[in-house]
Structures are given as C-alpha cells and as structure tokens.
C-alpha cells in the first residue's frame, strides 16, 4: 500500500451511492474530499485512507456516510455562494450547529476535512470595518439576519475549534481581520462579544496562537472595551463572565500585563468582584481574584487597587474592601480565598494605607473565620502571614 498506484474508481467503489456522488458532478474524492483530476481515477493514498477508516469503523460503518458528505458539501456551497440570501445562510448555519453537536465521532472530522473552520472565520472577519458598523447599527429585517448570521457563524466556529487546528485563528493577525474583530466587538450584540471573548480565551491555550494572544493583549481599544463594556458597565452576568475569562487568558502572558493594567483592567476586575459578592451567587470571582493576584506583581496594579473607588456602588466600596469581602464567604467552598489573602499580603506589605483600609474593612474577623473553616492548609498559612503583617499597623 506504500507504492503510489492509480486505480480505476469503478474497481473499488461498488456502491450505488459512490457512483451517485460522482454522477452528481462532484469533482472530489468521496472519502478525502481531495480534488480528482479525473473522476474515473483515484490515487492509492485515498484508497489507503478509505480502507483504514473502514477498518476503524468496523461494524459501526454508517451506510449514509457519503450522503452525509454530500449534505455537508451542499451546506458549504450555500455559505460560499454570493447568490444565496442571508436567511438561507442562517438556516444552513443552524443545521451545521445541530450536526456539529451530534454524538457521531466523524461529524466534526468531516466538517474540518471540508474546510468549514477557515470558511467560517473568513465569513465573519473578512468584511470591512465600515460594513460591520453599518449593518450592525441598522434595524432592517435583512440586517437582523446579518446579526443572526454572525452570531451563528461564531457559535459554529467555537464548536469546531476544539476538534481542529487552532492555527486557523492566526488569520486574525492580518490587520484587516483584526480591525473587523474590533468593529464587531464595538458594535456587536452581547452574544457576539461573548463569542469573541471565547476566541481570545482559546488563543492562550496553544503555542501556535501565542503571538495572536500577544496581539490581542496590546490592543488598547479592545482591552478598554472589555474592561468598560463587559466588566464595569454590564448587567449581563454571562457577558461579564466571558470578559473575565478573556482577561485571565491575556494575563497568562507576562508581556501583556502592563498594558492590561494601563487600560483599566484592574478596575474592571474589582468591579466584577464587588458585584459578585453583593449578588451572593456563584460566579467567576475566584478567577478574577487569581488574575488580579498575577497583575499585582506590577506597582501600577497596586496603585490602581488602592486608588479604586466604585462610584456606582451605593456602599462606595474601595478596592481593598472589595478584596476583604472575598477572604471568607459563608456557604462557599473557599475558592478565591487564597488569592484574596495573597492579594492583600502583596498590598499590605508595601502600603500602610492598604493595611489601614484592610483593617477598617473587617479583615481581622474574616481571617479568623477563615482559619476556623475547612479551607486548605496553604490558605491558612497565608492567612497567618497576613495576620502577622497587619500587626505592623498597631
């Protein structure tokens, strides 16, 4: 099977559906989707792929396999066509999303083999900034389909990404694509922004997309919008959660941290933490706290916490008071307690004002409650360190 052979396709494809596939005018191999110069011939690497796949599938071979390929190819053609209406494209995306979420182990493989991932990314980010601004602002029925198209295309992209090669995202390193990304974030719906945040989050998970993660992290306009629109001025908790995950991902690169602080991310994190303690519901406050702890390695971040003042909060909590409230929470599994204590150690070690604010915010009671709880030994060790540190104030 290692030699490069050419076989007549009629010698190995005996099923009516194989012939139907070629008779329908398809010029690609029905198995690998590679283009065939002559539809009557198939190279033996294609045969080897088919045989290996058939052996792996064993008794689970799906007799409708080629029919599925034909259906997916038709959906792809619908998305690529300039003659098809947005309404039909939205319907195609809904089918793609339903199929990509199915339990079949081969469905995602087929989507990727057919090139759906780069196609979806191009459809979302290939337009010009002006087009995105204009269409997202209009209220015409056709433009509402455009918004739905973007939402569904991003949703399908996020479903396929875990199964594909993340370097497909590197198309966003192109200036025009990055500009489109910013325009969508600025003028898109909450669902679009949440999906864009998830794309940012994904870039931090692979060495292949590290450079893209760095590019997002130095994009001042994008960082400011995440901090202000999602974390500080947003009543949508799901969108705020997506923003926290994106900021956490960007902060994983040390090179990004100074810029994050400069664009107001510390204020956004504390606002989110304060809001979550008031709601007393499960949130990503522990992740926000861990992210803040990473940023506090910078002097500018320490100053931002101490100078923070949430004017929109009726209780007028300052930054240190917000951290104190995370030290111990009733009916909590103490997630976030260790990072909260760690943040306070960093701040109080350098600042008398921070120590005074922590004490006035009730940190001593919080620490004593934490020491009596079932938190980890490491958290209790840090709590004792903070208690010793606070003695300097007296």
What percent strand?
A: under 5%
Helix-residue proportion: 55-70%
Backbone CA Rg: 27 Å
Counting DSSP H or I runs of 4 or more residues, the number of helices is 23
Shape: elongated
Structural class: mainly alpha
Distance between the termini: 82 Å
Major sheet description: 2 strands, antiparallel
* Average of per-residue pLDDT values: 83
Major sheet strand order: 1-2
Pfam families: ARM_PUB (PF25598)
Function: Functions as an E3 ubiquitin ligase.
EC number: 2.3.2.27
GO molecular function, one term: ubiquitin protein ligase activity
Short description:
The chain has 394 residues and is an all-alpha fold. 66% of the residues lie in helices and 2% in strands.
Key terms:
394 residues, mainly alpha, two-stranded antiparallel sheet, elongated, disordered N terminus, ARM-like, U-box domain-containing protein
Verbal overview:
This protein has a domain at 68-164. By secondary structure, it is mainly α. The model is unreliable at 1-15 (pLDDT under 50). Helix 13 (220-232) packs antiparallel against helix 14 (237-251) and helix 17 runs parallel beside helix 20 (337-350). 66% of the residues lie in helices and 2% in strands. The protein has a two-stranded antiparallel sheet. The relative contact order is 0.05. Pathway: Protein modification; protein ubiquitination. It catalyses: S-ubiquitinyl-[E2 ubiquitin-conjugating enzyme]-L-cysteine + [acceptor protein]-L-lysine = [E2 ubiquitin-conjugating enzyme]-L-cysteine + N(6)-ubiquitinyl-[acceptor protein]-L-lysine. It comes from Prunus armeniaca.
């Amino acid at each position: 099977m290692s030699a490069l052979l050419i076989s007549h396709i009629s010698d190995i494809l005996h099923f009516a559906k194989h012939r139907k596939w070629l008779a329908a005018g398809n010029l690609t191999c029905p198995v690998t989707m590679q283009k065939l110069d002559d539809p009557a011939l198939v190279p033996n690497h294609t045969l080897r792929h088919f045989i290996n796949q058939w052996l792996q599938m064993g008794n689970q071979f799906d007799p409708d396999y080629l029919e599925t390929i034909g259906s997916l190819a038709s959906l792809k053609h619908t998305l690529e066509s300039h003659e098809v209406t947005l309404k039909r494209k939205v319907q195609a995306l809904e089918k793609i999303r339903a199929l990509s979420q199915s339990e079949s182990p081969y469905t995602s493989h087929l989507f990727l083999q057919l090139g759906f991932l780069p196609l979806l990314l191009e459809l979302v980010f290939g337009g010009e900034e002006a087009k995105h601004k204009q269409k997202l602002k209009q209220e015409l029925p056709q433009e509402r389909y455009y918004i739905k198209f973007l939402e569904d295309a991003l949703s399908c992209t996020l479903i396929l990404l875990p199964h594909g090669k993340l370097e497909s995202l590197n198309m966003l390193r192109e200036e025009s694509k990055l500009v489109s990304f910013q325009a969508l974030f600025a003028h898109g719906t909450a669902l679009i922004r949440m999906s864009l945040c998830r794309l940012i989050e994904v870039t931090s998970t692979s060495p292949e997309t590290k450079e893209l993660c760095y590019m997002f992290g130095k994009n001042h306009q994008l960082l400011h919008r995440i901090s202000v629109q999602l974390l500080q001025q947003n009543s949508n908790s799901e969108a705020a959660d997506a923003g926290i995950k994106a900021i956490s991902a960007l902060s994983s690169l040390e090179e990004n941290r100074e810029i994050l602080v400069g664009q107001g991310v510390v204020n956004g994190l504390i606002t989110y933490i304060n809001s979550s303690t008031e709601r007393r519901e499960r949130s990503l406050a522990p992740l926000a706290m861990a992210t803040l702890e990473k940023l506090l390695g910078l002097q500018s971040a320490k100053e931002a916490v101490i100078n923070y003042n949430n004017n929109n909060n009726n209780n007028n909590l300052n930054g240190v008071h917000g951290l104190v409230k995370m030290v111990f929470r009733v009916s909590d599994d103490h997630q976030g307690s260790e990072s909260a204590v760690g943040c306070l150690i960093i701040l109080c070690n350098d600042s008398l004002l921070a120590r005074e604010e922590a004490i006035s915010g009730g940190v001593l009671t919080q620490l004593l409650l934490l020491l009596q709880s079932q938190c980890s030994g490491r958290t209790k060790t840090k709590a004792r360190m903070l208690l010793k540190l606070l003695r300097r104030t007296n």
